[in-house]
Automatic annotation (TrEMBL):
Protein name, UniProt field: von Willebrand factor A domain-containing protein 2
Single GO term (MF): identical protein binding
Residue ranges of every copy of the EGF-like domain listed in the record: 296-333, 712-748
GO BP term, pick one: calcium-independent cell-matrix adhesion
Intrachain disulfide bonds: C738-C747
Domain VWFA residue range list: 51-222, 343-517, 531-705
Primary location group: secreted
Quaternary data: Forms monomers and multimers.
Gene: VWA2
Length: 756
């Protein structure tokens, strides 16, 4: 049989177009931010003199439904335009096979007329001749426009599937100074939209299907050129990752089938396998960056306290859904108790280092505190002073009893500028800050100075702060991370310092400040001897920021104990990729030295093992030769994120069998089963939701430590005998039986024996 060429049989399957169920442009941000983008588009107004022409695709490839959505987008944009003959002029042109002018730029002088005529446009149909429409504008210019004496903006709304070339006429328009926005509809071809759009293209290519997002993107770009302005100075244009999608038809080999064809020159028929393909539609994605304006929301500062839920009512209003115990209170925050008798002087840094913005933030915080804390029956009195080079008492303590009057006086305090002399301000505040409000004897209320600063001091603060505290002034500090160490030195304790990361975080400190003003922390086990070791998880799973929170928690706990060689000794071990003893039990003899050493403990990173760290503590920290004292209660507090705790069960049991109490503090989504096995017979386990919540569990930790300190002590556990000596209890004391070659009370000296 003669050979014949294969005949390729192709079967084509056409899939009908369907509207996508997913967005064709998706900004990868939270649902809350999407809401802010939507709300911010209503905060932007365009009032500059400008000519704006909408060029709307009315071809069959777009379809009537997408044409209506294009009109809706144009109407939404017009809501932000200050339309008038001398300000913003708007025109519209529809194109299909040929362009058709719907109305020129000088036809209507009010937003109502423009939007009404935009809505009344009728779908035209025809081919997608985008290039012809652009050439029409090159010949005739903007119909009814002002001849390039004002900025010209062309907004092309199309699916990007033109049947002619668009790049050359678009380039010519842009060279004439026309700013071109390309707005996609239906399943747009993004490469054509990019050819149409002005530079930078990421800011001039949008998607009309998501109307509020596209409106925000267009107005955000125009706000950079001063054509549009945002109502609030706190609103900002920010880049966000986004993804653009398009629908394309691709050919795909499906398989083969028998096909027949008569042979050439004979009556024979050839039967052979032939490949066949199908056509299918696929969604292709294009990563991009979208620039959108967002404005702070009313709930950003989390004003609802004590578990209350903030419900926004527009951009600047909200209401709180409060738990039953706080249902009658504003922001779910109770006022200061009438029993809380205090005189408070807020000391605001007003220097160049703090900046005007920081000073205004501090004033806003004081106002928020006054509104949330002072009620009709409050016995707290408030004053305000500002400082840079000198102290100025703007509102003397107790001068205003009426909250509205106090708030009005706060508004009038001016910014100073100049040097940041915090030490001098503290000295003057102690001498004259409380003025006539200062009373003597038992009638005098507690006097408090609340220092708010974001700038390090340019003079000495230690001496003035020490003298202020000697006058029985309580010093509290509120500032950024940059001044944490200085504020701790001024106040004398990390417990008296509130650190915030940003403006909204600052306003969340109101409740914390209330607590510090009116409560006195209970002491630790002041009269009981204790050997206490903290083990901090410094592994990569915790991270440096959370490790710093662990350090702050350990410092706050150490403050509650009388640290000296006769009462409480404190040691610290950190573990990550390896175990390191930051300092031993007998290294530091004072509380101040312990606090400094905890702050200096290193973050290690790596993969942590709590079991290895606890074995290290058993063998090299809780021993007599390393400072542990016989007959003194011993406790280890392990702070961990949970990872690496699987191997700790045996070391924990070994420590407890040797008379050492162990408390495990697990933070975050820890491995609960692994930690539960470490809890021991007395359920020595605390679970904390987040690292930021550690401070709320300090009292529980202190209570546990003090409870363990009261338990009976076995003098031989852990054994005080070194070099494998045996500890023997005897008449309320103990003695060590030493191995050959060792002698002394604890078998710590080599014995000297004469050779036989």
């Amino acid at each position: 049989m003669p050979s014949f060429p294969l005949l390729e049989a192709t079967f084509i399957f056409l899939l009908s177009g369907v509207r996508p169920s997913h967005p064709l442009q998706e900004v990868h941000v939270s649902r809350e931010t999407i809401g802010k983008i939507s709300a911010a588009s209503k905060m932007i107004q365009c009032s500059a003199a400008v000519d704006i022409l909408f060029l709307i695709d009315g071809s069959y490839s777009v379809g009537k439904g997408s044409f209506e959505r294009s009109k809706h987008f144009a109407v939404t944009v017009c809501d932000a335009l200050d339309i008038g003959p001398e300000r913003v002029r708007v025109g519209a042109l529809q194109f299909g096979s040929v362009p058709r002018l719907e109305f020129p730029l000088d036809s209507f002088s009010s937003p109502r007329e423009v939007k009404a005529n935009m809505k009344s446009m009728v779908f035209k149909g025809g081919r997608t001749e985008t290039g012809l429409a652009l050439k029409y504008l090159l010949r005739k210019g903007f119909p009814g426009g002002r001849n390039a004496s004002v900025p010209q903006i062309l907004i092309v709304v199309t699916d990007g599937r033109s049947q002619g070339h668009v790049a050359p006429p678009a380039k010519q328009l842009k060279e004439r100074g026309v700013t071109v926005f390309a707005v996609g509809v239906r399943f747009p071809r993004w490469e054509e939209l990019h050819a149409l759009a002005s530079e930078p293209r990421e800011q001039h290519v949008l998607m009309a299907e998501q109307v509020e997002d596209a409106t925000n993107g267009l107005l955000s770009t125009l706000s950079k050129s001063d054509i549009c302005t945002v109502a609030s100075p706190d609103c900002q244009v920010q880049p966000h990752p986004c993804e653009r999608k398009t629908l394309e038809t691709v050919r795909e080999l499906v398989g083969s089938a028998l096909c027949w064809r008569g042979s050439r020159g004979t009556d024979a028929v050839l039967v052979a396998p032939c490949p066949f393909s199908s056509w299918k539609r696929v969604v292709l994605t294009h990563p991009a960056t979208c620039y959108r304006t967002t404005c702070p929301g009313a709930c950003d500062s989390q004003p609802c306290q004590n578990g209350g839920t903030c419900v926004p009512e527009g951009l600047d209003r909200y209401h709180c859904l409060c738990p039953p115990a706080f249902g009658g209170e504003a922001n779910c925050a109770p006022k200061l108790s009438p029993e809380c008798r205090i005189d408070v002087l807020f000391l605001l840094a007003s220097s160049a280092g703090t900046t005007l913005e920081g000073f205004l933030r501090a004033k806003a915080f004081v106002k928020r505190f006054v509104q949330a804390s002072l009620g009709e029956d409050s016995r707290a009195r408030v004053g305000v002073a500002r400082y840079s080079g000198e102290l100025m008492v703007a509102v003397p303590v107790g001068e205003y009893q009426d909250v509205p009057d106090l708030l009005r006086s706060l508004d009038g305090i001016p910014f100073g500028g100049g040097a940041t002399l915090t030490g001098g301000a503290l000295r003057q505040a102690a001498e004259r800050g409380f003025g006539s409000a200062a009373r003597t004897g038992q009638d005098r209320p507690r006097r408090v100075v609340v220092l708010l600063t974001e700038s390090p001091s340019q003079d000495d603060v230690a001496g003035p702060a020490r003298r202020a505290r000697a006058r029985e002034l309580l010093l509290l500090g509120v500032g950024t991370e940059a001044v944490r160490a200085e504020l701790e030195e001024i106040t004398g304790s990390p417990e008296r310092v509130l650190v915030y990361a940003g403006p909204h975080d600052l306003f969340r400190q109101t409740r914390e400040l209330q607590g510090k003003l009116c409560s006195r922390p209970p002491p630790g086990c002041q009269a009981r001897s204790l050997d206490l070791v903290f083990a901090l998880d410094a592994s990569a799973s915790v991270g440096p920021e959370n490790f710093a929170r662990m350090q702050s928690f350990a410092r706050s706990c150490a403050l509650r104990f009388d640290v000296n060689p006769d009462v409480t000794q404190v040691g610290l071990v950190v573990y990550g990729g390896h175990v390191r003893v930051a300092f031993g039990l007998d290294t530091h003899a004072t509380r101040a030295a312990v606090l400094r050493a905890v702050s200096q403990a290193p973050y290690l990173g790596g993969v942590g093992s709590a079991g290895t760290a606890l074995l290290h503590i058993h063998d090299r920290v809780m021993t007599v030769q390393r400072g542990a004292r016989p007959g003194v209660p011993k406790a280890v507090v392990v702070l961990t994120g949970g990872l690496g705790a699987e191997d700790a069960a045996v070391p924990v049991r070994k420590l407890r069998n040797n008379g050492v109490s162990v408390l495990v503090v697990g933070v975050g989504p820890v491995l609960r089963e692994a930690l539960r096995r470490l809890a021991g017979p007395r359920d020595s386990l605390l679970h904390v939701a987040t690292y930021a919540d550690l401070r709320h569990h300090q009292d529980a930790l202190i209570q546990w430590i003090c409870g363990e300190a009261k338990r009976p002590v076995n003098l031989c556990k852990p054994s005080p005998c070194m070099h494998e000596g045996t500890c023997i209890l005897q008449n309320g004391s103990y003695r060590c039986e030493c191995q050959d070659g060792w002698q002394g009370p604890h078998c710590g000296k080599r014995s000297l024996r004469c050779p036989q």
